[in-house]
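Sat 14:20. Reprocessing the chain from the morning session after the first attempt stalled halfway. Input below, unchanged.
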Amino acid sequence: MKVRNRNNNKNVISNYGYGEHGASSSAKYSKNWYVSPGSPEEDITKNLNTLIARSRDLFSSSPLALSAIKTLRTNVIGTGLNLKPKIYHEVLGLTPEEASVWEKKVEYEFSLWADSKDCDAVRRNDFYEIQQVAFMSMVITGDTFVLLPFKERLGDVYGLKIRLIESDRVCDPKPEDKSRDISGGVEVNEDGEIIAYHVLRVHPHTKRTTENIQKNKNIWDRIEVRGKDSDKVNILQLCIDERPEQRRGVPLLSPVIEMLKQYKRYTDSEIMAAVLSSYVAFFIESEKDNNVLNEVSLSSESNNSKDNSIDLEPGGIYNLYPGEKINPFNPQRPNSQADVFLTHMAKLIGAGLEIPYELLLKQFTSSYSASRAALLEFWKVVKMWRQWFERDFCRPIYEEWLSEAVARSRIEASGFFSDPFIRKAWCNSQWFGSSQGSLDPVKEVSAAEKEIRLGVSTRSQKAMEINGSDFTTNARQLEIEQSLMNNIGFEINKSSETEIFSDISELKEDKENE
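Finished this time. Tokens:
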């Protein structure tokens, strides 16, 4: 800031750079706009309880908030991300054929554990269902914690278990332990490294009063991120960081909570106005002190016993007292502009959540190109979420499982425990979920074929992208089917296939032009 002389008679305060724009304190837009900087603890952790409560309330009561969260869940996780081991066979000295055999064996062995509810510490969900719960919980509350206990039970092949912990249970212990740097239940050392989480044994907001809950109500367990001796992962925190030195996650709906609440209030008001207009056709004006419509019920099933009340119902006819007259009631509902306004609000909310409003409202009324552009833009968001979930949830758990499988000699992997470099080569994996889907399969399959010919993509990759299948499995099945067709003398006319696809493309193009 500097003081400069203007017209030789007046000193004017002038700001540098943003001081005259975004940081101006004298511009009209900045009046009554008072903000101050805060650390991640003040901005996030201290507001977390309120944000979580409001986010859960919107998830339970707002259709648009519910659509946002479930749309993400369905597209990112779907029926679950599936394992495809991809070891570095060159590093391990294996041929591609040997690597393929090992990968297929591991895939089958992993399914033995993942497809069973025994992998869940509470035996409620299998591995793929756990993914859905973990992701939804993280999106709603900002973060979810995953314990990886080792517990052998009768009939179990593996001792590794997954136990999800709701974010409310990770909180600061009481009385406060001032010897440790703990905030939001997350403990860090002098370097800022997260070394432990403090988990309350029971949910802090439970209303139950059983003996076990009362005994553990004020007891916290300090769970170290990794074991001191084994270096085994004990607990995972699923959250998306938006600031350095952040310890707790932020609920997805946080930036649009106010707009979602107002959206719900407006829709509730419009619905109530429409209901009233369908029941109330008039008002009765009377000179008497005790109006006959002193109390009105909108339900024909009401058992109101008061003499001066009327239960309104469609098509009802009522007698009036002397001196009373009818005034028409016309609230102009439904509001003809409501849909335009709500759609615009949905666009703003969708922009804040990186979800196109067409997907929020499940309404595709635009052209093919516009709808495809929206889906492609959303798919970028889905891929980002998938890669994050794969790295923070799927891979760490798979590596812990594979370590146990090798230790139990169910899987052979020489050098697994002796060299971190070799272990990384054995643990490399890819995870695939449900495909994007398509608006025009003919065009997209044709584009995939050209990409494969140019060498910019592979058949395995396109098989996963188009319908989520495995190319190797498809090729083997096609070989079996082709052998069967040859045995019965059935031949496919490839030229007729081309003509069929060409006809389909032409029909689609004609429809779009119309």
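Residues 368-407 form the longest helix (40 residues).
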